[in-house]
Amino acid sequence: MEQAEKIDILRHLVEINSVNGNELSISKYISEKLAEHGIGSEIDEFGDNRANLVAEIGDGTDKRVLAFEGHQDTVALGDETKWTHEPLKFTLVGDQAYGRGTADMKSGLAAQIIALIELTEHHIPITGKLRFIATAGEEYGTPGANRLNEQGIAKDISAMVVGEPTGGEVIFAHSGSLNYQIKSYGKAVHSSTPEQGINAINGIVKYINREASLFDDIKQDEYLGPVKHSVTLIKGGDQVNIIPEYAEIYGNIRPTLKFPNNQVIDRIQQVIAEINETTDYQLEFSLIHNFYPVETNPNNEFIKLVVETAELDYVDRKSKLSIINGATDASVFIQSNSDMPVVILGPDAWDKAHQVDEFTTLTSFFETINTYEEIAKKYLHKQ
After folding, report:
1. Exposed, middle or buried: residue 338 (CB in 10 Å: 0-12, 13-18, 19+)?
2. 269 and 343 share a domain?
3. Within this chain, do residues 16 and 141 fall inside the same structural domain, yes or no?
4. 45 and 125 assigned to the same domain
5. Starting at the edge strand that comes first in sequence, how are the strands of the sheet with 246-254 ordered?
6. Partner of 159 for a Cys bridge, out of 85, 146, 275, 302, CB 3.0 to 4.6 A?
7. Cα–Cα distance measured from residue 250 to residue 181, given in angstroms and rounded to the nearest whole number
8. Does one domain contain both 112 and 183?
């Protein structure tokens, strides 16, 4: 495939608005592009213009199944007046391609699509299966990955490459992400007689004071480090001269394999129970999102294969093993296949994502295409 056509695929993906939804339009475009090159695909629609897409190549004579996985949605545009380039227009300035999703992760998605096409057109014998998975809603709630996981798509996968932006670094582990809400219920009275009421904000303060040191005793994970935790939103009260009868907070915690999600939840609930039993405050815990940590032994043979391959293709830098603190769709898929080795590898760096004037570089984009193709050849092609 000529470079101009590769850029055109990326251009089309970027210029389809998929901010927190509208993935069906992306899926239809991908399906049509794959069909042009003789590759079949299935679109999994699930309402409100949302969809996943799955495509597969290979003869299946080997039991190995390699998955290329990516998401079709993007985060919101933010303040459009701060963008130098139109966020929903693909703008090429030298080597840099601007637009929402160029880094996270439509360049990775395009690279995976192109890898499938070129492997097919070059008649590379794939003795196992190469499965391309494009999901909906990774940026908010992972409804697409959840749906596919429930359908069993990950159960036979031998290894997975997630195309999030990593700048050529081979990510073998990432923390989980747990979002939660705590509601506090009190009793409203006039602020001149606070002793007659129950200040719901004080109940929240009680929890926050405990939360500050809640995980101090937990040993650091060998690779992911400590359990990171923050209270990030707080609301409470209706009027300055009324003791508030209701308040709420939202928090985010980054679980590790050393202290995983279920233990994090248990510890929060223990604190809530203690406060409810020993004070007049009544707190209520709700789990909003629950993404699991992902960690593959860096000495795993698939990890070694990916590192060796990436070092050959990312010519301007030595690829290295690393970790990130964000979560990916892999958090969902490992729930049904915990033995599956996972790497995150894609064009340009994680810090390019979600920002004003988001961009990727064509150099990294082309390098990533080559890397994906070589990974598939080495893992699935028997000489």
Report:
1. exposed
2. no
3. yes
4. yes
5. 228-236, 246-254, 177-185, 282-291
6. 302
7. 4
8. no
Structure tokens at 327: 């979560």
CATH number assigned to the domain comprising residue 254: 3.30.70.360
Residues 33, 137 within the same domain: yes
User: What is the span of the domain harbouring residue 81?
Assistant: 3-175+293-380
| Environment class of 16 (CB within 10 Å of its CB; exposed 0-12, middle 13-18, buried 19+) | buried
- Domain termination site, one of 291, 318, 333: 291
Residue 59 C-alpha from the chain's centroid:
30
pLDDT digits (tens), the chain, 383 positions: 999 999 999 999 999 999 989 999 999 999 999 999 999 999 999 989 999 999 999 998 899 999 999 999 999 999 999 999 999 999 999 999 999 999 999 999 999 999 999 999 999 999 999 999 999 999 988 999 999 999 999 999 999 999 999 988 999 999 999 999 999 999 999 999 999 999 999 999 999 999 999 999 999 999 999 999 999 999 999 999 999 999 999 999 999 999 999 999 999 999 999 999 999 999 999 999 999 999 999 999 999 999 999 988 776 656 689 999 888 999 999 999 999 999 999 998 777 788 999 999 999 999 999 999 999 999 997 65
66 and 153 assigned to the same domain: yes
Domain final residue, candidates 259, 291, 323: 291
101 contact partners, CB below 8 Å, separation of at least 6? 13, 14, 18, 74, 358
What is the number of domains present in the chain?
2
Q: Residue 383 has which token pair?
A: 């000489």
SS3 content of the chain, % helix, strand, coil (to 5): 35, 25, 40
Specify the pTM.
Answer: 0.90
Q: From residue 167, give the alpha-carbon distance in Å to each of 64, 139, 158, 318, 324.
A: 27, 20, 24, 11, 12
- CATH number of the domain enclosing 68: 3.40.630.10
d(CA 369, CA 367): 5
Q: Are residues 267 and 313 in the same domain?
A: no
Q: How far apart are CA 277 and CA 274, in angstroms?
A: 5
